[in-house]
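FORM 7B: Structural annotation worksheet

SECTION A. Query
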Amino acid sequence: MTVAEALEDAYQEYIALEAIYDHARERAQSSDHFARTIIPHAKRGKKTVPKRKIVNVYFDQLHENLSEQYALHLISIFEKIVFNKIDNAYGLIKNVVRNEYEKTQKHKNLSPLHRSAVAFIKKKEDIHNLSGARKLLEKQISKESSDNLKIVIEHRNWLSHGKRQDVGQKSTLTVYDIKEVLLKIMNEIG
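SECTION B. Predicted structure
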C-alpha cells in the first residue's frame, strides 16, 4: 500500500464515520428513545434542558473528538512512513560514507579518522520525534510544506499532551487539510 493510499484509506474511514455521526445526530434529535440509548445518562442533564440542546452539545463534542482522533491517526501514519524512510536513508548513507572513506584510505591515506567516519553521521536514533524529522526534511520539501508541517506537529503535540497551553498549539486545520499537507510532503520527499 502506498503512502497516498494509506492516508486516503484513513481519511475515507473518517468520512464514513462522519456520515454515521450525521445520521445518529439526526435520529437522536427526532427520537427520544434513540437519544436516551446513545447519550450517556450523565450527559443528558436535567429534564428542564431542551432535548435538542442536549443532543447538539453531545454531538458537537463527539464530532470534535472524532476529528481530533483522526487528525492524530493521519499524523501517526505519516510519522511511521517518514521514520521508515529515515531508517532506509540512514542505512544507505552509512554504507556510502563507509565505502568511500575506505576507498580513499586505501589509495592515498587522505582520510583522517576514516575508521570513525560513520560516527559523524546523525543516527536514526538521534531523530526521535517528528520535529527532528522536520528539520531533516527541510532541504527536501518546500518552505510552505515545512511551515505547514510545523503547524501540524504543533497541533499534534497540543492534542496528544492533553490540550495544554504550554505544549504545542491548536490549529484551524481540518482533517482534510492535514491529509493534504501530509500527502504534499510525501510527494516532495519521493
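SECTION C. Observations
The two ends are 15 Å apart (CA to CA). The helical segments are 3-30, 32-38, 41-44, 51-108, 130-137, 143-160, 175-189.

SECTION D. Sign-off
Analyst initials: ____
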